[in-house]
Amino acid sequence: MEGMGANQNNSAKPRARPIVRLGIFLISHSNIVSVVCFTAGVVALLLLPILAKNTYISENALMPGSANNMLSTHHVTDANKFIKDLTDMEFRSGASPMERRKLMAHYMSALDAEVTFHKFYPQFNQFHPLHFFTGPNSDIISENATCSSFGINTVGIIRAPRGDGKEAIVLVTPYNPNKVGMGEALSLGIAYSVFALLSRVTWLAKDIVWLVADSQYGEYSAVAAWLREYQAPAFRRVDIVNSETCNESSTFNEFGQGLCVDGKLNGGFRRAGTMAAALVIKVAEQGNQYEDSLNIYAEASNGQMPNLDLINIVNYLAVHKQGLRIKVKKMWSLLGSKWLKTLGVIFESLGQIARSLNPQWKFGIPATEYVEGAATLASSLYYQGLGVPTGPHGAFRDYQVDAITLEISPKVSLTKMIRRNEFILRGGRLIEGVIRSINNLLEKFHQSFFLYLLTSPSKFVSVGVYMISFALLVAPLPIVAAYLHSDASDSVPQNTSAEVDANHKSWKWLNSARKVLVVHIWGVVVSLFPFFLCQVPNTTPTTNFVLWGLLSAYSLPILYLILGSPIFEAVASRHEKNTWASLKSVTITTTFIGLSLMSVINFATAEIGALLIVPICLLARPLKLDTQARSWRTLLRASCNLMLGFIGFPPVAFVLLKGAFEDFYGINVGDYWNWLESLWAWNSATYLYIAVVHLPCWALCIHILFHPC
Amino acid sequence: MGLLHPKATFPLSLVFLFLFFLMASAEEEFLEELLLKPLPDRKVLAHFHFQNEAPLAAHSFARHHHLFPKSISQLVKKFHIKTMELSFTQGRWNYERWGGFDPISSHNAKPPGVELWAVFDVPQHQVDASWKNLTHSLSGLFCASINFLESSTSYSAPEWAFQSALGSLRYGTLPREAVCTENLTPWLKLLPCRDKAGLSSLMDRPSIYRSFYHSQRLHLAMPTAASNGSKSGIILEQALTVVLQPDNQKAGIDHVSTKIQPSWSLSSIFGRKISGRCVVAKLSNIYLHVERGPVTQLENLQKKTSKIAANDTGPEDYRRNSVFELSVTPERVHTELEKSSSSLYEYSIKDYKDIEQFDLGLTWKHPVVWSSPHAPLFASRFLMGSGNERGAIAISLKSTEVTEGLAAANNVEERCKLQVNVLQIVPWYVKVYYHTLQLLVDERPQVLTDFVERMRVSPSEDKVSPGVMELVLQFPCEMKSAVLSIEFDKGFLHIDEYPPDANQGFDIPSAIISFPDYHAGLQFLDKSQSKSPLLSKLQERSPVLSYTEVLLVPLTTPDFSMPYNVITITCTVFALYFGSLLNVLRRRVGEEERLLKNKEAKKGVFFRRLLTNVSAKLRGRPSESPLPPPSSSSLFVNSKLIFRVLIVAGIAVAWQYYSQ
């Protein structure tokens, strides 16, 4: 507000302090500033693949690959025997899932491991409106768990011979005992070969836990159930287990006793110290055509990542020792896009020019590399932003354990024996190397980054770099808000007395704030609707979505009537002209606050959200004013606003994003519901962001667009 | 100590010395023994036991000794030690597989790292001082950082849960202490023959440190004479317990198929043989302890074949039977009182020639599966919760076959009770809330007072003392499982209390679970009062004791570059504060307003006045009339500025030019 006044009588005054002058300058040129900042933000985002650094092993104690591999063909032969026994059961008549577990337990205990079975009731995803941000709770036992639906994890523990048992490394192989695929059997084989080796080695300092997760109710839920029992057990007996109707439980007990012969198997749950790291091993069913490759999945809930060193070790060992081709997820649709290629070419030529000027400036990368990097970066951003873990490793991150999923995909189908041996040897040696590195570690993983985006398996963008683009994107928001606020207060008619004027100002601001608050409360209400919709039985996603939309649409006017009773409306209506500016200023401020908060919780969501919501927040202006002006500029602005408003609508944004990442085929309305359902089921903060920040801000922007000035 | 290295060229002097020794130290004794025991999981336990006794003669004690180490007697004399035990341990004792209900496990299974406890014979107020001095002395003696136990945060004074009725006891552990040869060497120096002769010559460092469990123990005791209650002498017990894996190439490969235990011999597990006894040792014996399991199986097998064989069990029969075969015939066999119980084969070491060396071997002929006797309850301890804020410690007790048998036996009689003593010591940075102590018996929450007989809690004091909780619990014998859980908050350490590098976390020392109603002891049929201290140790009725796991608590580790950030931000805040404060102090608001009013009066526009007022406030500058802006001075400033810029640029150019 002072800025404009200051500009007017600047000449008469002595020069203000530079910082104030700078502020005034920025505020008075907010249009240019916002355009420049936003463009710079987008450009900075596009530059990230170029700015990415090569990864390096930051923690010296890890020393990956400095020891010779001890995994030999003996272990592979043993593993092959194990696989054969396991797959042969498929053909034998009357082989129950329990038989398979027994077989695994037998093999494990033959290696002198402590074997236990962990029985769990899978938790079906349910919407708990107040369980966002709370840690995993042992008291949540889903009501609809029945006796018939339970899983049994098989757990083998090797105690380090001379270790003190304070720490453990966890190996996880998801496995469905009802239906054995070749891939799952092979992943078990790889884990078995490593386990067989580790039960004999003398260098082990941390205990090794091999969890064969029963994945018939999902890989994640099996691992999560085991972790819950490990970290936060409920000692109280669950009554479902003991009810008379459960025959299965008694058979389970019998079975547990049956294996207790040699004194190695004890029915109770076993633990092995604080977990240092966890590796989930999977083998893809169908391979790619060219070579053995390794996919790394690292994203856990709410965009949390494991320490970069863990990925670095895997990357180093896979590439330099085992000759595996390593991959991280990419956005395939971006790979073929023309504009990205052009951009890559431009950056490449810029880099060449720079190099010709000074040979020490090396920032250009080849265009193809740029496109690849951008595609990987986009997918990294997307999966972090989604806040849903990309595999069973996500369950570990909830307990501050670094974990990744390694999916090894073979070159050809693994029916051939010789090929299979080599495959197991490679996979086993990789896992052995990683475990040996982690085993060396005397500390927690702390040395490398936790906040990063990957642009390729060996390149990353750290938080210090990628937050620049976000900062640039949101920087115009407070400036424009300040400008609008001062503008709105300045243009108050000046024929009234000072007090009334002051009153008007505060009233107007409060009016807009109240409106914004009401809309945000509406957002909270909308976010809670699914909880009630879930209670309605027998609904399809589409009807749920439609119901939700209707409820949301109706609840807004109702809430407005209840909360937004026009206390100051009479006074405010006299200056109807400028209310939109004040409203926009408050909206922008709340958007800024919301985005900043979100960037702390899940940076990627905030980044994507800023890309969607910031343009419309900056541009929003009543269409009426624009159409009245009738210059090409205002018309362009109006159409831009309409388009951005359309894109900003959450379901539309979802369809566009999904189309960009997967494809447009077969998208229906119900998908949005399903997507949101998955978000809240995984306790993703993105759901809260969409409902409490994005949706109200978007609604307010639309309100401004159709403001009756 | 010339007599330790008797030279063949001076036999006469040797004899003379030996006689002299016998005369002078009629009561100083040294005995060496070794107990070997095959374990159910294909491993072998070797337990060396050395005992050194000295009389408490006032004139020569701690001044001159023939066999007893002088350094230890000086320690005893100086710090008035009544009883003391120091142990260095690497690895964990596997209570499940190696047993928890025998004298070896309750005396020699120790928590990883260093454990030290001592009872002093001094007035109460001097105990702490004696302890501190003792830790420093031991630290020097054993090349270990026992001196860290000096700090009052690391030791405690349990009153009755650990070693009852011993008086002024101090107890401390260092779970992180690494154990290696430099701790063993000073320990061996206390032996009269070191490791040059006798049983200790078996201690080949690589094979000992390759073991799965390694614990060296030093125990000092002052037995009181039965007649007058005064102390008669001092007994120094040194024990080394190792669990070794017989190096068997064949068994390593097809371990899945064969069930036969690996055969071993002294030379295969230690890589050495015994060439003779320690000359000064009064007793030098080797025992082979075969547990109840194999003996029972052997008897069953013999019953089948007894029709053919005559029923005499001569020593040759012990040596060679259908289950195993020994390479040397035992001199004596001790069997336990009960039917079908463990037996002990005794060998005494004579002086051997160079060619003929003692090498005891055991070859298994028949696959035997057995399990060692377990403690009444199997205790394990773990941490619950995650994150850097809070957590919980849980001690879970599970019944084993011992209590199951008891519950069946005592069904008719009055309710049988099982007493369990728990001693839990927690460092101060784990802030335990004792009111959150919960007890669940058979998965049902129970009222604590129904089960707790006695309880003593001394809460921790920040940076002064650890928290100690002693519990005496009475459980019904038919109980299947019990869980004790207690919640804690993680405290913050001072910056210099953190280890210099990033750490994995901090340790909570092992809890001690003891069962005072149960006594681990073997009753041998042999009535002949053997002088062997190891045998008497085995027969001693001592309460069953087990240690739980050491826990690792990850504490919040600060970013140690943080002080820099804090300094920066504090300086910024201070600068802003003082800047604005000076600004406020310097400004004269009244004067300012008066001038402004004058000015506004000229213009006569109210709104303007308001705006300028506000803008002036914002700028924090007195909005006085612009007095000193003569154009010349500003020009001067500008030229000066340009001049400076030029100088800097010139320097930069020069630098660039000369640096290349």
TrEMBL record, chain A:
InterPro entries: Gaa1. Keywords: Membrane, Transmembrane, Transmembrane helix. The chain crosses the membrane at residues 20-48, 463-484, 516-533, 545-568, 635-657, 686-706. It comes from the Eukaryota. It holds the Pfam family Gaa1. This is Glycosylphosphatidylinositol anchor attachment 1 protein.
Automatic annotation (TrEMBL), chain B:
Pfam families: Gpi16. Residues 1-26 form the signal peptide. The chain crosses the membrane at residues 564-585, 641-658. InterPro entries: PIG-T. The keyword Transmembrane helix applies. Keywords: Membrane, Signal, Transmembrane, Transmembrane helix. The keyword Transmembrane applies. It comes from the Eukaryota. PANTHER family: GPI TRANSAMIDASE COMPONENT PIG-T, GPI TRANSAMIDASE COMPONENT PIG-T-RELATED. This is GPI transamidase component PIG-T. It comes from Flemingia macrophylla.
